[in-house]
Amino acid sequence: MMLAALAALGALVAFLLYKRSKAASPEVARESTPALDRFIRDALEEELAERVLGIRRPTPEERTKLTRTLADEPDADVVGRIEALVRAVELEFVRYAHEADVETTVRVRYEDGETGTSMRRLGLADVPEAVRADFEKRGSTRVFRTWAFPWQRIRAL
After folding, report:
1. Number of Cβ within a 10 Å radius of residue 69
2. Alpha helices in 54-146 (DSSP H)
3. Kind and range of the H or E element at 145?
4. Which of 35, 56, 88, 138 has the fewest other C-beta atoms within 10 Å?
């Protein structure tokens, strides 16, 4: 009876630690916004589709595994291909004093030295708080960030 109670308690503690690790911490929440996440996923899906899937102009149905992988449901085969092809994903935010929005660029640097880029204008509210703070604090027009794929963000407890 005591052993069963200890096992149940252990399972409860493990579940609570798991839920805690999945919850967004203030630090993580500051580094992204739903609009930015959507843009990054769209840009990466478009940029990586042909290289990762090996299909010229793949249809949305053919992109399903890539789409799910970028949406935090990783497929081991797709992750392996991305890891072999991509050296880094970088974000560049450009804000000019006379403009209300921010020019946002996703830059994919490949292992073979090539680079792919995608650009979109986002409202200032759609840019992460930490980036807005850098614009204000440093008074610069450009802010850079390195971006990590969902499977690369796993933290130890």
Report:
1. 25
2. 64-70, 76-85, 129-138
3. strand 142-147
4. 56
> Whose structure tokens read 């053919």?
62
Sign of CA dihedral 66, 126, 134, 154: negative
pLDDT in tens, 136-148: 888 889 999 999 9
Decide: 47 and 120 in contact? Cβ < 8 Å: no
User: pLDDT tens, 73-127?
Assistant: 999 999 999 999 999 999 999 998 888 899 999 999 999 999 999 999 999 999 9
pTM tops 0.85, yes or no? no
Paired tokens of 112: 């073979």
Query: Which residue spans within 9-141 are E strands per DSSP?
Result: 86-94, 101-110, 115-123
What is the edge-to-edge ordering of all strands in the sheet holding 101-110? 115-123, 101-110, 86-94, 142-147
Residue 153's closest CA among 21, 18, 52, 4?
21
Tokens of 116: 């792919």
Tokens representing residue 140 in the block: 């610069």
